[in-house]
Design a protein that fits this description.
The protein is mainly β and 165 residues long. It is built from one helix and eight strands; from the N terminus they run H-E-E-E-E-E-E-E-E. This is Outer membrane protein beta-barrel domain-containing protein.
Length: 165
């Protein structure tokens, strides 16, 4: 496993030295699952190095005759910084908000919630193909809590793959 990880990092670093920037991207984000296990993701650079990222996601589960489905919309501002002299490989910081609603037959879980989060992560754009990949962390604090399940703090994180244009 250690050799595989080192090979993957070496491949990313080697490919990153030949990457280029992009204006818009659309794809899929896989999250840690507190309110959005999978999301449609759109990212646009409004002016270098500033970007906006929007995610429309859901989470669903069924257990012991009980079920819930959560729908979430999040938006974040990200300020990007180069990582050394490696083209296409950047880190970012920013912040955003999330609105979510849980539909459920469990009264303690269903309802509306809203949260705020700082965000940070890395973004990598391939040169030879129109794809970008990112990993981020969004420690979310829910400030409006109609759904008792989403009260408090969550160290939400995710990985994203996007088509760039």
């Amino acid at each position: 496993m250690k050799k595989f990880t080192l090979a993957l990092v070496a491949l990313l670093v080697a490919g990153a030295s030949q990457a280029q920037d992009y204006k818009n991207s659309i794809g899929i984000r896989l999250g840690s699952g507190y309110y959005d296990v999978i999301s449609a993701s759109f990212k646009t650079f409004i002016k270098q190095p500033a970007a906006l990222e929007f995610n429309l996601g859901f989470d669903s589960d069924k257990f012991a005759g009980k079920s819930f489905t959560n729908l979430a919309l999040s938006g974040a501002y990200q300020h990007h910084f180069p990582i050394g002299n490696i083209d296409g490989f950047k880190w970012f910081v920013g912040g955003g908000a999330v609105l979510s609603n849980t539909f459920s037959n469990i009264d303690e879980v269903k309802g509306f919630s809203a949260g705020i989060f700082p965000t940070g992560g890395v973004d990598y754009k391939l040169k030879s193909a129109p794809f970008a990949f990112s990993a981020d962390i969004r420690p979310t604090i829910h400030v409006v809590n109609g759904a008792g399940h989403y009260n408090g703090f969550y160290a939400n994180g995710g990985v994203t793959a996007r088509y760039t244009f």
